[in-house]
What we know:
globular
Amino acid sequence: MKLYVFLILILICPNIFASDALINLNATNSIYGYTVLIIFVLSYLFVMIEEKTHFRKSKPVVLAAGIIWVIIALLCKSKGLPDAAHKAAETTFLEFAELFLFILVAMTYINVLDNRNVFKALRIWLINKGLSYRQCFWVTGFLAFFISPIADNLTTALIMCAVVMSIGVDSPKFILLSCINIVVASNAGGAFSPFGDITTLMVWQKGIISFGGFFALFIPALVNFMIPAIIMVFAVPNEKPPATSDIIELKFGAKRAVALFLMTIFTAVMFENYLHLPVTMGMITGFGYLMILSFVITRTERKIFYDGGSKDNFKGFNIFNKVSKAEWDTLFFFYGILLSVGGLAVLGYLELVSHTMYENWGNFMPIGHKATIANSIIGLLSAIVDNIPVMFAVLTMDPSMSEGQWLLVTLTAGVGGSLLSIGSAAGVALMGQTKGIYTFMAHMRWSWAILLGYFCSILTHIWINQKLF
């Protein structure tokens, strides 16, 4: 199982989103601007149809990013600004490097936990509880909701999907409804934590919302998850699944790895909030914890292996093998997307979109909620276009909004992807994992219930957090 992108999670650094970090060439109506826009759209179309073509999503966007910046460089040269493109590209690229290291550490931790049987043991424990399908529906949903703020929506969805696949081997309908519930729950759970989704991390890293400020979204996120779940549960078979005799034991170091993982998250938060050091330095420090643990695991397992009477073929626990199993396609996808969207910002497209959405739309709304329409539409867009470039674009636009509006766009961008199975990484991953049971059209049949939860969560946020607007 690919337990990748633990916090596809994790982070984008503040400078990459600062509006003054990139120049604005005001070239939206030029042949350069039109060409770049076409290239970006074509590359993203390939990303959207990856499930059908099996053409890895990183390939078109990496190529598009290179071409886009070549065009920008030629434009800068024609304007007599030979160094402008270099400075803008360097700013974006250096910040991506920090993102790259952060996510790489997070992915490595997930690979280690998987290697130590942490996720397999959780699955077996739940199966042997003897719960009914409806009870399992609720248990896996709530687990997804509360695990995703720490382990990200994609990783959480994959873990919970493995559980429901094992439980519902004789009930495809249970698997289908549980998968929809897991996608909604994991996306909603990731919305109220800085570590739950890349969108929340983006907003946190820019310094717009404090670490604890995101918890104001807990109740709206819970509403987003609960409303469709309450509707769907009546369609879940009210029967008990058969138990399993499988036994999975945790390998040596499993509990220590979990503890160090939590300690690494704590270290990253402390580096950022109290020491004012780059959060990536905290994550890499946490990788140092893991490197020491790998040494302890190797020494202990070598002793056990030798005591068993054999001294040949012992390979040990190599932490760098776990690094090599990171999801490189996702890492390079980030590179392509961030560099491409950065190019659109340099050409002036994001400023144009910001002016249209946040100044012209919603003029009929009260002054404190003028951006509500735009931020609500952002969430609907994230069901079609991945929420990462959507949120990146909003942050690069940097519209003037209250804390309540920034929380709103964080909520909508995070949960809007639940409306379609292709709207979030969790949904796409589960379609591949369930082999035709959880499909695009099957998800669509329940989109009306998810949409109801979406709008109710927006109204709940406006109601309970009105002092923030």
